[in-house]
Amino acid sequence: MRHSTLSKKDRINFLKSVPQPDTMAEEIHSGLARDNKTLPPKYFYDKQGSELFDRITDLDEYYLTRTEIGLLEQHIAEIADLLGKNSLLIELGSGSSIKIRFLLEAIRPKAYVPVDISYAHLLAAAQRLANDYPWLTINPVCIDYSKLWSIPISDTGRRNAFFPGSSIGNFSPSAALDLLKKVHSVVGERGGLLIGVDLKKDAERLEAAYNDAAGITAAFNLNILRHINRRLDADFDLDNFTHRALYNEPAGRVEMHLSSKTPHQVQVQGERYDFKRGETIHTENSYKYTVEEFHHLAALANFTPLKTWTDPLSLFSLHYLVAH
Question: Angle 173-99-185 (CA atoms, 0-180°, nearest 5)?
Fold first, then answer.
């Protein structure tokens, strides 16, 4: 067993990425000014939003997390053989870094690079992993992973990326293709990508996953307004909105909305936005794919599917792709 002589503090080294401008205000104003109002879903993930999402993953209705974990548990030996030992392991949207533990224990990477937009959540997860894996070097990157072009670390070995949770579904197919191309540039030729993708299925099961009986997904959706209030001196009254989620079958996606209960006005940095009763803010899409549809998308980004695993009910899929 390898042991590091470095302290936990020395093994958690935040990497400096290319500085990114803070575009939150511009993106929020742009989305609210549209005839059909929108908000970027990445702004769900402040500290409270990240904690709420962790609770969503434990819900009975939310099959995605437990099904993906089941696939990892069942096929970890085969997955480890494909990823190989001692590679650099990069996780996009690492969150609480729960699923990555299967890979850390199976392949013992030379370094782990979690990438997430929520600094507090990222640091807390890195500290837990440093406690549990004394041999592991952790290089967190706090950035919007959709803007990631490179990993600023000196390493000439093989790179594998891990992108769990079907987060690729939060992007339109064209934006998903753009992101896969960026991942290709990060892992380089012959690098790998292990990615979770939710599959198309009946509307009842899909809508239940985003309309849980406990109201945790509703709280998560509404929290984006609280985040905007805090960051941009806005005055959204959360009681004026209600959560809605529906499956848009022709588009192949679940849509989340915040619906205005009453006519009212909102101020964001002094800019006024009017809401009619029943008007919605479109906060998130979650695109679903067939295995064949996703393989076609991956091929457009110059990834070759080497292996795909699905559960017995064909709810979810896990793919290992290699960049060529």
Answer: 45
Q: Give the 3-state secondary structure of residue 317.
A: strand
Taking only the tens place, the pLDDT of each residue in 90-132 is: 999 988 788 999 999 999 998 999 998 888 888 899 999 999 9
For the chain, give every residue range classified as CATH 3.40.50.150. 57-201+289-323
Q: Which helix (H) or strand (E) covers residue 126, if one does? A: helix 119-132
The amino acid at 287: Y
Quickly list DSSP for 137-182: -B--EES-GGG-----S---S-EEEEE-TTGGGGS-HHHHHHHHHH
* Beta strand extents in 54-110 (DSSP E only): 88-92
For residues 227 and 230, give the distance between their C-alpha atoms in angstroms, rounded to a whole number.
5
- Asked whether the CA dihedral 105, 191, 170, 137 is positive or negative, the reply is positive
The answer to whether the CB of 191 falls within 8 A of the CB of 161 is yes
Closest by CA to 100, choosing from 135, 72, 127, is 72
Q: Tokens at residue 186, please?
A: 């990060």
**Rounded Cα gap, residues 168 and 165, in angstroms:** 8
Q: For 294, phi and psi rounded to 5 degrees?
A: -70, -40
Assign domain 57-201+289-323 to a CATH class. Answer: alpha beta
Count other C-beta atoms under 10 Å from residue 9's C-beta.
9
Q: Residue 24: which of 125, 166, 147 has the closest Cα?
A: 147
Q: Count the helix, strand and coil residues of the chain and give each as a percent rounded to the nearest 5.
A: 40, 25, 35
Classify residue 119 by burial, with Cβ atoms within 10 Å: 0-12, 13-18, 19+: middle
State the average pLDDT over residues 170-186: 96
Nearest by Cα to 94 from 140, 62, 55 = 140
How far is Cα of residue 115 from the mean position of the Cα atoms in its chain? 10
How does strand 88-92 pair with strand 159-163?
parallel
Residue 247, token pair as written in the block: 């499956």
pTM: 0.90
Written as one letter, the residue type at 296 is H
